[in-house]
Amino acid sequence: MTTDVHQLDDGAWVSVNDSREVNVSDLWRLAAHDFCACALADFLAEGFVEVSADGANVEGRIAGRCIQCGAEGVTDWLTLGRVDPDTGEFRPVVPESVHLPGRRRRPAAPR
Amino acid sequence: MPSKVERWKDETYGMEIREHLLRFAEEGWDAIPEDEHDAWFERFKWWGLYHQRKGQESYFMMRIGTPMGRMTPEQLRTVGEVARDYATGPVENPEFGDAYADFTTRQSIQLHWIKVEDIPDIWDELESVGLSTIQACGDSWRNIVGSPVAGRDADELVDVWPIVQELHEKFKGNDLYANLPRKWKVAMTGDRRGSGQGDINDLAFEPAIKELDGEEVEGFNVNVGGGLSRKEPRFARDIDVFCRPENAADVAAGMSSLFRDYGDRDDRFNARIKFLIDEWGPEKMRSVLQEEYMDYELPTAGQGLRDEYDYNAGRTDAHGDYIGVHDQSDGQNFVGLSVLVGRMSADDVIELADRAEAYGSEMIGLTQRQNLIVGDIADEDLDDFLDEDLLEEHSPDPHPFMRGSIACTGTEYCSLSIVETKNRMVRYGRWLRDNVDLPEGVNDFHIHLSGCTASCAQPQIADISLRGMKTRKDGDAVEAFDVGLGGGLGENPTFADWVKMRVPADEVPGYIANLLEAFEAERESPEQSFRDFVAERDEDELANLAESAETSYEDPYLGNTKLTWYPYAEDTSMDASPAPTDPNDQPLPSDD
Ligand code: HEM
Ligand code: SF4
Ligand SMILES: [Zn+2]
């Protein structure tokens, strides 16, 4: 199954199979990351910089800021959600739960 | 590889989108195939329609571009009537009621809650008085900005109105320039105030004088590559070109063709011409323009008038806006009225158009400070006009905090936003007016509040810059602002220094109060402007000037307004959204 993903509206949205699914302005909890020095980063998503699909997995790198320490930048790859292989429906992850960026090795993604 | 958006644009873009919109209007919202929403929403922007945010599906923001913000009273009335009849949603706004128009920082008009089914009727009404939504958003020539009182202003070098009309005619609806890599923003200034704010536009014509063939010629210097978005603010750069008024269209055609051909179509984040001139430098920009796009020798730049600029310049010797009564060159007057955060109720818009017409005005102007000008008021009518009831609300002599406030759209409608904006700015303004004494001698104080880094409220060029953020307060995520100080245009344009980060939104008024107290106590003299005061200090000193504080100010929007379907609904939860709806705001039956 191929999943078609792209960012839209200046990085405000991630669109999955031509449906706007993940929006900016959520807070994401990041653990085991090198985004900032916080053990658990409290990351405000301000814009999706790169997105790609790895099978049913939708992943992205997000520009934003840790609102605990103030570090700014772009995250490593984060899983944003999965496309249900049976229904084709996109199931987003819950941003406020804990995420581990960049765990999997990933191929170069088109921009 | 061209971006996805470029592929959609290759399929269908420009004028032809209109036919599709008319078809969707006929067949209704459901006729837009769900798996084509992304492509169509991207294209609709070209005709001035921008989809509203999550929870408001099937509603659109409609933008009407008015070149230089200049309108007739009849056009203004039509805008008011369209707002009254079509720009109403399922829920009222607690500050502004159920129908209103937004006057924007690029001298356009935005209406919200527009249904696709109503578009043909709205276009009929707008177009019958010469207004249009063409190219109001999307990747092409946007609304041309400049002084709405050009030709009437007693304080100008060149009357740019005929030139702006020529550019508008030439570049709107022109297939050659319909599909650019990104938006293309042009400013044309002919006055001595710098009111076009060319420094923050892709292409700027700035008034200048040049000796050519032994003759002093009044025309323009050409600057390229300004813009504020994405934490990458740039001022337009001098490419050392002087342009005669009669050549403005050729130079504009050359520059926008250059952008069309050389702008980055692979990466939209890198597409604006500000990044191309970063890469090339002004010399290469000039030589490519000369060699590939011009058929006459471009003169080098002339003598500009920058030292006279006062528009949004933070000077103490001149107001930096058009508010109040000003002389026209024909002996009449134009009167600038404050429109708080640029939003006016549809009824007031209609009433104002009627009043303006009754006084014989032939010109209404929208300014880049989200205010409105009524032109052509005769001396003998002036007192009566100033006594009109409507001017109590939209005052020609407002309190400086009301006068200087600008706010963007924010979480009310905008997908990009992080925080609530307009209603909050209204509440800030009122609280500051009622609780904070401005230091002696301060007649202007500009606060620009933007909901995100796109910077639609031009936050980097204000005395106080507020940019939407979040923080935690007692463990809860709350809306917040990064605070910048000391930005402005004028002779030496400067971007704000960002000195306080993530200030909770309810502590911003307290911060401003403390800051102004420190300014009053520490400034050199009452003549020192706030901007100069900031310029003298380094970042640490600025950060230590004042602390944020809770005060009697209450903020009803502190929680996460982006998680609501509409921040002011009774039940704000996403599940309570009626959208997508039919043209009467009733929920459409869902198909799953
Ligand atoms: C639904 C409402 C709006 C949306 C979605 C929106 C979207 C955007 C975006 C994405 C940018 C950044 C563009 C870039 O990368 O160049 C931007 C910048 C800007 N927009 Fe808006 N905007 C909205 C309302 C407004 C309003 C009310 C105005 C006033 C006309 C406005 C004027 C501007 C200006 C002045 C900039 C920044 C300057 C620049 O870089 O050129 N926008 N807007
Ligand atoms: S600055 Fe951001 S939040 Fe405000 S209108 Fe522009 S895009 Fe929306
Ligand atoms: Zn951190």
TrEMBL record, chain A:
InterPro entries: DUF8134 (IPR058447)
Domain DUF8134: residue ranges: 1-106
Protein name as annotated: DUF8134 domain-containing protein
Automatic annotation (TrEMBL), chain B:
Residue span, Nitrite/sulphite reductase 4Fe-4S domain: 137-294, 402-546
Keyword 4Fe-4S: yes
Enzyme Commission code: 1.8.7.1
Classification via InterPro entries: NIR_SIR_4Fe-4S, NiRdtase/SiRdtase_haem-b_fer, Nit/Sulf_reduc_fer-like_dom_sf, NO2/SO3_Rdtase_4Fe4S_dom, NO2/SO3_Rdtase_4Fe4S_sf, NO2/SO3_Rdtase_FeS/sirohaem_BS
Disordered: annotated segments: 569-592
Keyword Iron-sulfur on entry: yes
Pfam family, any one: NIR_SIR_ferr
Residue span(s) of domain Nitrite/Sulfite reductase ferredoxin-like: 52-128, 326-388
Keywords: 4Fe-4S, Heme, Iron, Iron-sulfur, Metal-binding, Oxidoreductase
Membrane-spanning intervals of the chain: none
GO molecular function, one term: metal ion binding
Enzyme class: oxidoreductase
Similarity annotation: Belongs to the nitrite and sulfite reductase 4Fe-4S domain family.
Protein name, as recorded: Nitrite/sulfite reductase
Organism of provenance: Haloplanus ruber
